[in-house]
Write a structure and sequence with these properties.
The protein is of the alpha/beta class and 303 residues long. The chain has helices at 3-15, 18-25, 29-43, 59-86, 99-116, 129-137, 176-182, 189-192, 204-214, 220-223, 231-239, 253-257, 290-300, and strands at residues 48-51, 54-57, 93-97, 122-126, 143-147, 157-164, 167-172, 197-199, 226-227, 244-248, 261-264, 275-281. The strands form 3 sheets. A 5-stranded mixed beta sheet has the order 4-3-5-12-6, sandwiched between helices. Strands 9-8-10-7-11 form a 5-stranded mixed beta sheet, with helices on both faces. Residues 1-58 form the HTH lysR-type domain.
Length: 303
């Protein structure tokens, strides 16, 4: 049995089409059909049925595909282990960060690696949880840090809980609502909504918390004026306007310490913020250099 035949079977199973699978595999459709036929002949049974325009696995095909995924995963891990050995056991650091962790970790980590570990290759990707998990499963990333509730539990994933960070409304120093609060007048969500509200994309869990706390008007789908995965860009907008940022405090701790931004206390107060997790693929060999990233996360991802 050739592993390439198993790869061909999984590609057809994933896209449910011989023509699309052949395109992705850079094969002719006839060559792909011969490959699947050879596998069926060897295993003594039909692996793929046609249902309308879709090509779907038979019960035997599902059994073979499940085992084939494990076999191909182990093959990839074998090559990865050998590659790490030949690289003197270092390996690259390829990580994905959600908006909040990216604002806290990305620039300081890149600076740290450039100064202290210039020989290690580092690649950091920002994105939504869904996009980053696709890259993790495609093995173009080795680890992802996003909010734990934004990822559905799955047997192919392993996660380790990290810190829960405070989420708050943030505005520039001298903002009219800060003056209102200083005068002893409570700041409500209705007051906040008089100004543009900015935020990175929020998980369903955080969105539900806002609605529970402040009512239906706080649904991020309706109340956000500025939405961006790059929190630093939102910070720049808030610094020069009356826009209000909803963010984890850790993402703007430097600007708060410098007196450029301030936490805006509201009535009622904002609940605790998101809980993050460190996601990796179950069973995957981790490059030793990832220990540097893990240690950096432990030291910096906190309020």
């Amino acid at each position: 049995m050739h592993l390439k035949h198993l790869r061909h079977l999984l590609m057809v199973a994933d896209v449910e089409s011989f023509s699309r699978a052949a395109q992705r595999l850079h094969l002719t459709q006839s060559a792909l059909s011969r490959s699947i036929q050879a596998l069926e002949d060897e295993l003594g049974g039909k692996l793929i049925d046609r249902h309308g325009r879709r090509n779907v696995l038979t019960p035997l095909g599902e059994l073979i595909a499940e085992r084939a995924r494990r076999m191909l995963f182990e093959e990839a891990e074998l090559h990865r282990s050998v590659e790490l050995f030949h690289r003197h056991h270092l390996g690259a650091i390829r990580v994905g960060l959600g908006a909040g962790p990216g604002a806290v970790l990305m620039t300081p980590f890149l600076r740290h690696m450039a100064m202290h570990h210039p020989g290690i290759q580092v690649a950091v990707s920002l994105g939504t949880s869904d996009a980053l998990m696709i890259q993790l499963r495609q093995r173009t990333l080795d680890a992802v840090i996003v909010e734990v509730t934004s990822v559905a539990p799955a047997t192919d994933l392993r996660h380790e809980l990290l810190a829960q960070l405070q989420g708050r409304f943030i505005c520039r120093a001298g903002h009219p609502l800060l003056l209102q609060a200083a005068a002893g007048e409570a700041v409500t969500f209705d007051d906040v909504m008089r100004y543009p509200l900015a935020s990175a994309p929020l998980s369903p869990e955080v969105a539900r918390g806002l609605v529970k706390r402040f009512g239906p008007r706080a649904d991020p789908e309706h109340c956000l004026s500025l939405r961006c995965e790059n929190v630093r860009s939102l910070v720049e907008a808030v610094l020069v306007s009356d826009a209000i940022l909803f963010s984890i405090v850790a993402a703007v701790r430097t600007e708060i310490a410098e007196g450029k931004l301030c936490e805006l206390a509201t009535t009622p107060a904002v609940d605790d913020g998101p809980r993050y997790a460190f996601f990796t693929l179950a069973g995957r060999t981790e490059a030793p250099s990832m220990a540097l990233f893990r240690r950096f996360v432990d030291e910096h991802l906190h309020d």
